[in-house]
Amino acid sequence: MLRVIKNILVAVLAITYIGGLFVPIMNNNAAHHANIALHMYLTGDYINLIDRGMDYLDKPHLLFWLAALSYKIFGVSSFSYKLFSFLFALVGIYATYRLGKILFGERAAKYAALMLSSAFAFVLSVNDVRMDAMVVSCISFATWQLFEYLSFEKRSAIFFAALGLALGFATKGMVAVVLPVMTAFLYFIEQKKPGQIITKKWVWLGLLTALLLIPVFYCFYLQFDLHPEKTVRGISGNSGIKFLLFGQSIQRYTGAGWGERSSDPFYLLHTFLWAFMPWSILAFVALIANIKNWFRYKFDMQKTTAFALTATTLIIFVLVSFSRFKNAHYINILFPYFSLITAKHLITINPKFYKPVFGLQVSLSILLLIFAVVLNTWFFPVSNFVIGIVSIFILFAFVFILFKNNSDLLSKSVWLSFTASVFVFFLLNFNF
Fold it and tell me: Of 83, 175, 187, 230, which is the most buried if we count CB atoms within 10 A?
């Protein structure tokens, strides 16, 4: 019965994701991006990015192209705009599972997939659609394919890794290339195989990625490089190609042309606490434990836990924390890595920590349940019978798992947290 309940919970989360596709677009970045795609659809101009009559120089084309394609197939709606982000999210969850299976085994892979799929900001990214669900999934997919090649030397993995890198770059720029490549580079150091870094296969990877990106670079060349007279954010003489390669990341980091969003270096640290809920505290514990292992084993990387993933996560987290222009969703790019690190940590910790982990996750889960119940009874009472029945089932599943006579406290901790997240987002997407 327990297995059936778990399978139903996964299905309910999938339905919850689908429910979010029909929630009206929020009037901020999501509506802004949807409007750029709408301009493409209405005018037939798929080369120039136009934002309310002005040239848009920030993100590349992929989200806008896919949204415009979806408008053409399904009509203009919230569903059409969000659809491809949902499909990418499914690929990202699966890629995280497959990467976890390669690196840490089946159990850690399942836990990582459950964590990523139920993390607060990841579920939100398929509802309040910006570039995040797509770029996170591309990073996860590209990293998986790189490790498919590193582990099994599958030649097709080089092409698919290039595809993942190109799609990620075409969604949000260089960051989608930096993370998978940095992780692969650090993996060579971890495995003490630096001689394998410079080989022909990586040249092919770079060439394929560049080839797949020609449409995006060509469009930016036509819109900006051929028209240096255009002014964007008070700056003229913009090179679209240079901006894609360097300007986007550097300008946001320094605040040049964007201004300072937050000078608080801890902004993303406390943002992460809600964004990766209900896994955030465990994720920080796992990250710190892995760093402590580096010193315990005197940086013998093969004896440490997930050095490549941990080092990449730490480096990027610190870098974006000191960016002068910050957004809460900047931290989302690290969610697949945090999921894998946390899952690996859980299955390797000393059994004496099982009860504290269980106590922590049960406490957080109950707080989430109380929040969702109060929000959806006192402020916005549930009036739909089906929504009420499903909500009661999820609560029943939580109680059943909690009191099930099962000595596996780690499994209970993961599934109770997952169930609480499903309950919250089911009500948010279908009722609130």
Answer: 187
Per-residue pLDDT tens over the stretch 166-186: 999 999 988 999 999 999 888
Q: Which of 205, 201, 166, 167 is nearest to 85 (CA)?
A: 167
Coil, helix or strand at residue 405: coil
Amino acid type, 202:
W
Tell me the average pLDDT of the chain: 88
Is the separation of the CB atoms in 420 and 398 below 8 Å? Answer: yes
Report yes or no: 385 and 329 within 8 Å, Cβ to Cβ: no
d(CA 102, CA 96): 10
In percent, how much of the chain has pLDDT > 70? 90
Written as six digits, the tokens of 168 are: 């990620």
Q: Are 276 and 341 in contact (CB under 8 A)?
A: no
Alpha-carbon distance of 422 to 5, in angstroms, equals 13
Q: How far is CA 280 from the centre of its chain?
A: 14
Q: What is the DSSP string of 79-100?
A: HHHHHHHHHHHHHHHHHHHHHH
Query: CA separation (Å) from 391 to 371, 427, 431?
Result: 14, 7, 11
- State whether the Cα torsion 194-198-200-202 is positive or negative: positive
How many CB atoms are located within 10 Å of the residue 270 CB? 11
- Centre a 10 Å sphere on the Cβ of residue 210 and count the other Cβ atoms it contains: 14
Task: From 63, 62, 60, select the one nearest 224 (Cα to Cα).
Answer: 60
